Amino acid sequence: MTPVEPGSDNTASDPKAATDNISDAERELYEGRLRYDQSYARHEGLPHTEVTSPPLRAKLLQARLDGRPDPVNVSALIHDGQGRYLLHLRDHEPGVIWESGAFALLGGERTHDDESLEGTLLRELSEDVPDLRLEDFTPYAVEDARHAAENPPGNEPAVVPAVWDGGDRVVLNGVGVHLHLEDDEGRVLLGLRHRDSKYAGDTWHYLAGRCEQESALNCLVREAWEEAGLVIDPADVELAHVVHVVDAPGSLPLMQLVFRARRWEGTPEVREPDKCLTWQWWPPHELPDRLVSYTRTAISSIAEGHAFSQVGW
């Protein structure tokens, strides 16, 4: 049972009323939070490792209260092996059905009678498509979705999934592409990023970009033209190195793909001055001091013949 929030009709005047039907661990949490709220008008959740009371920590562990919300919805990502996905059209009942009148994945909300999320999915599928038989479900991803009322304008939640915490959660990884060019003297092309850039301002970096709804090679070709006016044929490109990067604790893991182009057309020019101030060829043994760390790692790894490295893990 979830305790009633402090400040609701029955708890502000009678705290005991809110704790009559809950476990000892939940009662201690609630009463401690109530005292904190009354003293400081706010509260803050703590992980187990920061709970200083040994009895409370033991009760939390025994009650399996880890502070994380249980998943309440489950969806099935079903495809036919030919790039087509199975969707259903929601009934058009605005205000009653979420995203009414729109196509969505099959699935639904977990009920108290469902013993597991897989049970929820099987029940929903039996109701919506009774003739469909599926086997070997594999967890794919977890999405943190919140109602708009929980996130008023100017208080948007973080949309970046957390770094893998050692559990079995699926964590999405971003994909970036980078261009490794060497001239006839073996020098590497780097660009000095604008000081106001969102990432690595006033620092040297590869010609790079994030993949949108496109393949990694198409992204590389597009970025080379947009940023430096270089024309590259995908047939002249090879994957030279991969760096698996975590920039900071809790940030999105990034799979940084570094491609080497053997041939290209054009001379590097500044085409996006709000992002890059200049392009310059650098000898691998005389790289600038202000250089993105994983770029330095990639350049040295390529020179040593290594195909993979990782930074920040």
Summarize the structure.
The protein is α+β, with helices and mostly antiparallel strands.
CATH fold descriptor of the largest domain: Nucleoside Triphosphate Pyrophosphohydrolase
Proportion of residues in extended strands: 15-25%
User: What value does the Rg take, in angstroms?
Assistant: 26 Å
| CATH architectural designation of the largest domain | Alpha-Beta Complex
Structure report:
The longest helix is centred in the N-terminal third of the chain and has 17 residues, at 24-40. The strands form 4 sheets. A 5-stranded mixed sheet has the order 8-5-10-9-12, sandwiched between helices. A 3-stranded antiparallel sheet has the order 7-6-11, with no helix packed on it. The protein is extended. It is α+β, with helices and mostly antiparallel strands and 313 residues long. It has helices at 24-40, 54-63, 117-128, 216-228, 293-304; strands spanning 73-76, 88-89, 103-104, 106-109, 174-180, 188-193, 204-205, 207-210, 237-245, 254-261, 276-282, 308-311. The two termini are 38 Å apart. It has 3 domains: 15-63, no CATH class; 69-141, no CATH class; 174-311, Nucleoside Triphosphate Pyrophosphohydrolase (Alpha-Beta Complex).
Write the layout of secondary structure elements.
Elements lengths: L23 H17 L13 H10 L9 E4 L11 E2 L13 E2 L1 E4 L7 H12 L45 E7 L7 E6 L10 E2 L1 E4 L5 H13 L8 E9 L8 E8 L14 E7 L10 H12 L3 E4 L2
Parallel strand pairs: 5-10, 9-12
Antiparallel strand pairs: 1-4, 2-3, 5-8, 6-7, 6-11, 9-10
Helix pairs in contact: 1-2
